[in-house]
Amino acid sequence: MQKNASGQELNERLKKFCAAMNASNPTWDTAVILGKVNQYYFTGTMQDGLLLVKKDGSALYFVRRSFARAKDESPLKAVYPMESYGDAARIAGGQLGNVFIETEIATVGILERLKRKFAMESVGSLDRVLLSLRAVKSPFELSWMEESGRRHHHFLADVVPALLKEGVSEADFTASMFPKMVENGFQGMSRFSMFENEMVVGQIGFGTNSLYPTNFDGPGGAAGVSPAAPFLGSRERRLKRGDLVFVDIGFAVNGYNTDKTQIYMFGAQPSEEALRAHQGCLDVQRRVAGALKPGAIPSEIYDGVMESLSGDFRQNFMGFGARQVKFLGHGVGLHVDELPLIAPGYKIPLQVGMALAIEPKKGVPNVGMVGVEDTYLVEEGGGRCITGGGADIIVV
């Protein structure tokens, strides 16, 4: 499989970006792209740099480190070394006109440094344009997502059960997963767009630790190492017979992520209550997946599914207690958390080429979090799963 994006692929992305900017912000003159993932999306290399895209479609890429690597990896012609923004201004010109920038990424300090070297008539946000553009994947991108999905499914179904040993702590269990993930093709990290969201491997919880509140907007729970490091897993909580094991991890190959959750029971059969809750989540996932067709409105999918659920099932659904999230799925790609959202208020129609993680989950008191998560591609006949499909609880 081709590892690097071709020059033609990158040119198509730039053309689509300029067309989207012309449609949404017709007075724009220059896009200033600072985020490393967005730089990679348009240049094919991930550096400490500055990408300027002009309204005429031209792109100028200025790189602090490593210029040599950028020249080797990127098919773009206009790649220049840069020690400061002043170097970029001397080549690109100091007048940028109406500027649009990643306001979710650029700090006040970075913007002030840019303004010392460039004249800007106005500053606007291009975050939504970039996220909407990246939501629709090309065949090149989808091929890597499918590869990630195959490896992800194999890892959770065939590798993880052997790592569950009586007496192991959550932290040590998570640590044992990481090298096995890398052996199975994982790139070594999962990227999130959420501001300052930190993750080592994923959300891991034994028993009721999977109900413990997290510091980000997700239905699952995790106690983590400590209040200062609310991830990885507890060093004190050790696996015992009769424990539910909650494993929610991303898997990425060549930059592209899939998202999947698998539930295990260690040394015992799950209770009838846990089985009913898990089966209800499987049913929700199937319904949402079947509705992932081009033209479908995500908010209508969400509303239709949620309105059909009984009051009893909705209790502790998509979170535990009062901390229930208001979505059933999210986009995934270069970041684990992307557009579109299966959520109230999100009315942009689905398109072929979109990839979404559908994650109905439900907390069971005194047991833990059950449910599923899989990554689907939007297709004419409905969502096609690339991570193996919703699975029953695996008894180890």
Question: Would you give an account of this structure?
Answer:
- This protein is α+β, with helices and mostly antiparallel strands.
- Helix content is 33%, strand content 23%.
- The strands form four sheets. A six-stranded mixed beta sheet has the order 4-3-2-1-5-6. Strands 11-10-12-15-16 form a five-stranded antiparallel beta sheet.
- The mean pLDDT is 96.
Tell the overall outline: globular
Mean pLDDT: 96
H/E series = HEHEEHEHEHEHHHEEEHHHEEEEEEEE
- Rg, please? 22 Å
Distance between the termini: 35 Å
Question: How much of the residues is beta strand, in percent?
Answer: 15-25%
Structural class: alpha+beta
Number of DSSP-assigned strands: 17
H/I helix tally? 11
Give a quick account of the main beta sheet: strands, pairing sense, barrel closure.
Answer: 6 strands, mixed
Helix fraction bin:
25-40%
- Main-sheet strand order equals 4-3-2-1-5-6
Uncertain regions: pLDDT < 50 for 5+ in a row? none
SSE diagram, text form:
Blueprint: H1 7-24, E1 30-33, H2 36-43, E2 48-54, E3 59-65, H3 67-73, E4 79-81, H4 85-92, E5 95-101, H5 108-117, E6 119-125, H6 127-135, H7 139-159, H8 170-183, E7 202-206, E8 243-253, E9 256-266, H9 272-290, H10 298-308, H11 311-314, E10 329-331, E11 338-342, E12 355-358, E13 361-364, E14 368-371, E15 374-377, E16 384-385, E17 394-395
Parallel strand pairs: 1-5, 3-4, 5-6, 9-17
Antiparallel strand pairs: 1-2, 2-3, 7-8, 8-9, 10-11, 10-12, 12-15, 13-14, 15-16
